[in-house]
Specification:
69% helix; 230 residues; globular; Tet_transcr_reg_TetR-rel_C_sf; mainly alpha; DNA-binding; 2 strands; single chain; two-stranded antiparallel sheet
Length: 230
C-alpha cells in the first residue's frame, strides 16, 4: 500500500530549492520532505523585508539604471524571481522603495508650521541619520528629469498633506502668506536638505569642524525663520 507521503498531491508552482526558478508542485509530499522549501518561501514577509533593505542600498549606491536585480537578490538571499513576483520590474521596485522611505520621513518628521525651527532641526537630523533618502531622490531626478514618475499620484498626495499643514499655518497667521504654501515648502526643504546633498560643498565653503556645522545649522534655521516670518 502506498503511504500518505506518496499519495498526497499538491497543485501549483513553488520556488525550486534545487537551483531552477520554479518547480511544478505535482510532486509528492515525500519529495518535498526530502527537499524542503527554502526559508524565503516559508516566510514571505521576512523575504520582502530583506529584499526591500537590499534594494534601498543598491538604488542609493547605483541609481535606477545602474542597479542590478542580481545583486539585490544575492544581498537579500532571495530567489530573483521572487523579487519580480513581489515588487514587479526594477522601475516599480525603485518607486516602491522611494515611496515607503518618504512615507517614513513624513511620519517621523511631520511639517510643523508652529515651530519651523524645530522642524528644520529634526529634518536635518533625519537626513543625517538616513542619507539614503536624498540619494534616492537625486537619482530619481537625474534619471526621470521632469517626466512623469511611476506612482506620481501617490507622490502628489504625499506632498499635498505637507502643503496643507503649511497653508493651515498661513490661515492662522503663524507663517507668511506672501509666498504660496507649496513654494514655501519647496524652499524650506531645500534649505534644510542641501547641506546633506552636497557635503563636499559644505566642507569647502563652511568648514568641517563641529563648530562649523553648528554655525551652519543655526544659519539655516535663521534663514528659514526669516523666509517664513509674517
Amino acid at each position: 500500500m502506498e503511504s500518505a507521503l506518496t499519495t498526497n498531491w499538491l497543485v501549483g508552482y513553488l520556488p525550486n530549492s534545487m537551483g531552477g526558478p520554479f518547480i511544478p508542485v505535482n510532486q509528492t509530499v515525500g519529495y518535498l520532505a526530502r527537499y524542503p522549501l527554502p526559508m524565503a518561501a516559508r516566510d514571505p514577509e521576512a523575504t520582502k523585508a530583506r529584499i526591500f533593505e537590499a534594494a534601498v542600498a543598491e538604488f542609493a549606491r547605483h541609481g535606477i539604471a545602474g542597479a542590478r536585480i542580481d545583486r539585490i537578490a544575492a544581498e537579500a538571499k532571495a530567489n530573483k524571481q521572487l523579487i519580480y513576483a513581489y515588487f514587479g520590474n526594477k522601475a516599480e521596485l525603485f518607486a516602491i522603495v522611494l515611496e515607503r522611505k518618504m512615507l517614513h520621513l513624513a511620519e517621523a518628521v511631520p511639517v510643523d508650521p508652529d515651530d519651523l525651527e524645530s522642524w528644520i532641526d529634526r529634518l536635518m537630523d533625519y537626513h543625517a541619520d538616513h542619507p539614503e533618502l536624498l540619494r534616492l531622490l537625486f537619482w530619481e531626478g537625474l534619471e526621470y528629469g521632469s517626466a512623469e514618475l511611476p506612482h506620481e499620484s501617490d507622490r502628489q498626495e504625499h506632498y499635498r498633506r505637507k502643503v496643507a499643514a503649511l497653508r493651515d499655518g498661513q490661515d492662522r497667521g503663524v507663517v507668511t502668506d506672501a509666498i504660496p504654501a507649496a513654494d514655501l515648502l519647496f524652499l524650506l526643504t531645500a534649505l534644510a536638505n542641501w547641506t546633506a546633498v552636497v557635503p563636499q560643498m559644505r566642507r569647502i565653503l563652511v568648514g568641517e569642524e563641529d563648530t562649523d556645522r553648528d554655525r551652519l545649522r543655526a544659519s539655516v534655521k535663521e534663514a528659514a525663520r526669516r523666509l517664513a516670518a509674517r
